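Intended use. Records like the one below are meant for learning the mapping from a protein sequence to its folded structure. Do not use them to infer anything beyond what is encoded.
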Amino acid sequence: MDTFFTVSYQSGALNDNASGFVGQYAHGNEPSHHVAYLYACAGEPWKTQKYVAYIMNELYNDSSSGYAGNDDCGEMSAWYVFGALGFYPVNPVSGEYVIGTPMLEEAVIQLPDRKTFTVKAPRKEDNEVYICSMKLNGEKYTKNYITHQDIMKGGILEFVMTASPGK
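Structure written out for the chain above:
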């Protein structure tokens, strides 16, 4: 998969309809949105963190063309929201969200019954895109995913971020 993200895209070679290239990965092609998260599933979460941070920082901005491709039914926007929270539904029916890299220092999700789920990821520097450690409700958390059920219970998911990958 490494070469998928590093071999350069050559315009006109295959399909100029795609956009948002990182190597051969075309972020503008919504069916491939999960690909950067597959590293975490394969035991190399630092690569997921590297590429998700790169995609979010380089392919999204607040201009009129602030995302690659078109926002079919909100897919590009939804990818960004999940990415910014630090997790993504690689398999949407599994009830699990694969951990990526949170890009917000704090986000609060309002849940039913006045519960909230809070994500905290304070940073000292913008280049701190790698996860050093996590806690869920004050307890050390080492899984590469969080369940929908855990989110819906409410609580706090805390990330300690660093500039160096934790290989």
